Queue: 4 jobs
Job 1
Amino acid sequence: MMLLEPISTLLATTSNPIKRAWDHLWFYGNTDASNFAAGSDAVFFFIFWVSAFFFVLLMVLMVIFAIKYRRVPGKSAPVSASHNTPLEIFWSVVPTILLAVMFFWGLIEYLPTRVAPGDAEEIQVVASQWRWDWVYDNGASPLNTEVIANMESPIFALPVNKPVKFVLSSLDVIHSFYIPGFRIKRDVMPNMYTQLWAEPTQVSHSWNEDTEEWQVVPEMARGDFDGFYLACTEYCGDQHSQMWGRVMVLSQGDYERWKTQQADTSGIPLVQLGGDLHKAKGCVACHSVDGSRGTGPTWQGIWGKTHTYVGGGSGIVDENYIRESILEPAANIVEGYPNQMVSYQGQLTDRELYAIVKYIQSLSDNAEDVAAAEAESEAEMAAKQEAAESEGGADGDAAGGGE
Ligand code: HEC
Ligand SMILES: [Cu+2]
């Protein structure tokens, strides 16, 4: 490592114009967003420059030799030398040394990414077609989304200067967890946990008291930077290229505030919560609410209808039908659709399940059902308020699920 310091500094400092252009091209000019960024870039640029040097050298020699030794009429071809020991040792030893440096340097940078420090905060990452979900240590999962590549993508948060360990698992196929800004990446497997960690080093967002929104901090406001990207880099089906997430890095105080905000959904009326979950839980990838057909059936106007199943049988779309469809999707497959939905067992609280029911009811084409869904939402909120008032405190801590 010590020996490599001067080379790293030469190749990958931010004052190096090529490094700057590179960061600008791929990383919005954000060079050191995690503890791993500088080390990873240094190895990258070492390999890059060694390759560039030999590419140019070989191409130039090839052109020179092609001209110098071209066939000339009347001149016979020289007999090629059978052997040149010094030359052969030279071209074996030098590349071996270069490759060994690449390998060991890479290994030195790679190994620490696999072993998280003991005090790292753990975040559970659940991947499924075609959505990322993170579960934080207080049980929170992000509710807010942003459209990336035409898809509602969740907005996550991380604390600055604090190690976080990601424990990765998949509900279906192999995905791959990649935060380019942090230079960390690892495959996400079904039936097996993998993990990696990082310590974010640059705050990207802060809470704006006036607008009550998370805002990019001025130091990071370059181009259309709006937080770091989380990408899936393993082809995982039809909408793989739309499987994105957004990562905000917050000061420790802001981070705690964010986690609390996300964990407490008790103040959000049912129908609205159902709509938020439709986006945040990724149902939107397969279920439209405007009548158009996706991987799964639309939710518009299905309430109260009779749906037939593959292989016979049918059911009326009501509370129990929807609940079963979410918890045990394979039990009955809607006619004309593939068995492509994973179970959301354990991922939604009872109140969240009910919120989705009320949301689907509110998408009915029957005005009475729409009104019923709205009325139930309002009644629940009013009851909560009353309970909070009679308790004398309005901390809204009553729910979060489980009633
Ligand atoms: C990968 C695509 C996919 C995702 C994501 C997905 N579903 Fe599905 N869903 C399907 C498919 C396909 C069907 C039809 C086959 C079946 O019944 O399993 C279906 C069926 C349903 C049905 C029955 C619909 C009907 O018309 O009878 C409900 C309700 C439902 N899903 C709810 C959800 C909820 C809630 C979520 C998000 C928490 C979700 N789905 C996420 C693909 C998906
Ligand atoms: Cu994926």
Note: The first strand starts at residue 121 and ends at 128.
Job 2
Amino acid sequence: MRSTRPALRVRRLRFLAAASLCLLGAAAGTLGSRAAAQAPARALAPRSAEGQASPKRNVLFIASDDLTCALGCYGHPLVKTPHLDRLAGRGVRFERAYCQFPLCSPSRVSVLTGLRPEKTGVRDNSTRFRSILPDAVALPQLFRRNGYRAARVGKLYHYGVPSQIGTSGLDDDVSWDVIVNPRGRDKDEEGLLRNLTPKRGLGSALAFHATEGSDEEQTDGKVASEAIRLLEALRDRPFFLAVGFFRPHTPYVAPRRHFDGYPLDKVALPETFEGDLEDVPEVAPWVQPPNWGLGRQDCTAAVRAYYACVSFVDAQVGRVLDALERLGLAERTVVVFWSDHGYLLGEHGQWMKMSLFEGSARVPLLIAGPGIEARGEACGRTVELLDLYPTLADLCGLEAPPGLDGASLRPLLEDPARAWSRPALTEVTRKAGQGKRKKDILGRSVRTERWRCTEWDEGREGIELYDHERDPQERRNLARDPGHARVVEEMRAVLRAGR
Ligand SMILES: [Ca+2]
């Protein structure tokens, strides 16, 4: 295989800024810093619960790409994720956490700006959010302005998988002091992929490969190695380290040993129901025909490969968490693990993202570390990924910019059973109509602890209502049931209010 050295990009400007910091007597490390080039920091001392000044907390912000809640700690009967389970054991696992848009870039921009897609204007994988919001203070940028070193390894803002592996993609320059773009053996072995849907681009094809070699040779293995190296380099100053794994995004590539953990005969496909999609609006299903016409055997092989990738990512997260412990950083580092959106693996004959069904909108979310009183507990309140921005600002004692759309989850980290009145909103785009009348529309969905209600084009293209207390698989659309008219009205009022 070809050995590729990840590009560590520290530009001249950063060295100059680091030099000026040195002149000012500040401690600048070998990685450089651009803190001096930024607007003056609003220096707020982090506060402990008692209001006393406390040492600055670090942030380890770990993203996975296209990861659904198929994890041991979320009760999955087959998938093994011992390291994420360990993280969940020392923090809070959010059972009802939702993305704001089930597609990479719109979701990631929403997380990193703390704003809803309607404000960021990013609803595709090509728009740069700075072209719309030039002055937004992105989450890592807030930390930089407060004296933190912000570093990124791998995919945080969007880059196309697998085409842009090893590049910065739609990265945001001012978010980071340090950027590392690993590229591994998987990129060189695309010719070995088995592709069940050859007419689809590789980035959204059902394609997979059980590879030879070690975890460390894979792009995500290198992401973990570089993250460990950065933890060692940054340990003496407050840091915001963002670690972006891009698995289990397709193509599902992982070393063979991870496939071996999932014998084909143990992998079950979701239950199917006669007439499941007959009561949903025409625009609701993203995958047409269901399962792209694939048979059970192919679908099972794809799900198995996806599970192998989940275990592979889990092992890489474990390596990073081990380093955090070894370096004595765990007690002063807030760890967040999240996925940019959920993923369907055959539910309703649907795959991947871009749907407003539960499995596409729901994400795994784990938060652990200092300031988090509840350890190993689950929280059933509806929360949104855009809550992460105000949460991290709050936990680290930084003043968040005005106008963020989320709320700090700190009260729920202290008491996961606490009352919470915020529902979760998710939206997606669709083409509706035929021929010349074809137009772009929005689907918008609200999730409360009991209900999911989805409006397509403000209801003109249909409405869905599901009762998760009785129907967690969203089999029966109740939107036209007269007995549920009041619930539909209430939910639509929430959608109209935007919250
Ligand atoms: Ca994604």
Note: The two ends are 51 Å apart (CA to CA).
Job 3
Amino acid sequence: MLEDLQRPLDEVQGCKVLERVAEHPDTTEKDIELARQYLDDPNWGAYSLANAFRRKGINVHKDSITRHREKRCPCW
Ligand SMILES: [Zn+2]
């Protein structure tokens, strides 16, 4: 029953976007997966995606999103 306490942090280490997502207390593995999908989705601008994360209580800078998208991010 305690398996949910496992923080999905290992695979996101160094990624300023996914780290912030993983740090949120309600984040699940599924959320990490969804965050990756949003990051891959060209319909989401960096600015609006940062705002959408912020509304969920996740403070991500749009530059971190851009950096991730340009693959200048350790999570690739
Ligand atoms: Zn990344």
Note: Residues 15, 17-18, 68, 73, 75 surround zinc ion (CB under 6 Å).
Job 4
Amino acid sequence: MKKPWYYFLYVRSPLAKIFLGIVSVVITIAALLFLGVVEEQRMEAQTANWDGRAIEKGADLYANNCANCHGPDGKGLPGVAPALHSKYFFTQRLNDISWTGSLHDYVALTVAAGRPSKVNSQWAQRMPTWSQHYGGPFRDDQVENVTKFVLNWEADALLQGTAENPDPWQPFVDAPTRAMAADGSAMGAEAAPEPTAPLPPQQLFVTMGCSGCHNLDAPQDATNRGPVGPNMGNLPEIAGTRVAGEDATTYVHNSIVNPNVHVVEGYVAGIMPQNFTERMSEEEINSLVEWLLDPNRQR
Ligand code: HEC
Ligand code: HEC
């Protein structure tokens, strides 16, 4: 009989068969182990990728829903909302309020449920409710994404606490951590003490937080509407035209003491703090108005 062409594959010796069997089993196991390792790395890369996408989506949600109170870079706005992109927030906040859960859960829960209003709060408005479970606009995945985005500030926030890179935290009036400010460890920016003598308008503009929301030099126009509130470069020219029957001085004065009475078109009410009359004397407010309306105002 003619031998088939694959005759050379025939193994006669039983020992050789056993040996070959063992070798092939070993090779198979090695191959599976190798694939397992590779797969684990692939899964890790994939998870990182998902987290990255969640953070990106969270960034959009933040910019559209949170930035007008917590600031475009998360460093808070004076009198409006506390800093989240802050060393204090990542290192000390949970101790201060005796929260025993994780920071993730704290952020997710605060975002989901908001904060109830407080009488005489130091903040202009309350933290809104975001989750659909509590009547807000966000789905669960959106709450999770914006939480991931906030937590992603940690590495950068931990570098804060130096003179060039101060912690932007504004202490909660009822938080115990004022003591920490003494050694400067967590606090970089202690709230300004209540002034006794009238402060000059240039200084008020910074200490009252106006500079965080208003650009003094750029003019307000359709393409450049300012960081949070309107630009003030051309305020002396336009202030007298904002409200019929109000001259420039009256208008700017009212804008500071009663910001919601006339809300500039294209902006929402309630962002500008409502309590400036409690934080500045009438004399200070008048000097601020005069300075803002001076076409040659000096810094
Ligand atoms: C209308 C202004 C406003 C908006 C918009 C807002 N917040 Fe807040 N948020 C606050 C105020 C005010 C507080 C402090 C509340 C308090 O403790 O009384 C706060 C507190 C928080 C806290 C807890 C901070 C801490 O140290 O305890 C987190 C986290 C937070 N906000 C996240 C968000 C996120 C994320 C968004 C967007 C989805 C958002 N906030 C939108 C005003 C706002
Ligand atoms: C948290 C952000 C924020 C802070 C802080 C803030 N403002 Fe405003 N301001 C706004 C917004 C938003 C508007 C537009 C909506 C409105 O008219 O209330 C506005 C409007 C104004 C206007 C009217 C501008 C125009 O073009 O008609 C004046 C004047 C003004 N602010 C002065 C001040 C002064 C002075 C301070 C500090 C003592 C201050 N603001 C602090 C957000 C802020």
Note: The chain has 14 helices and no strands.
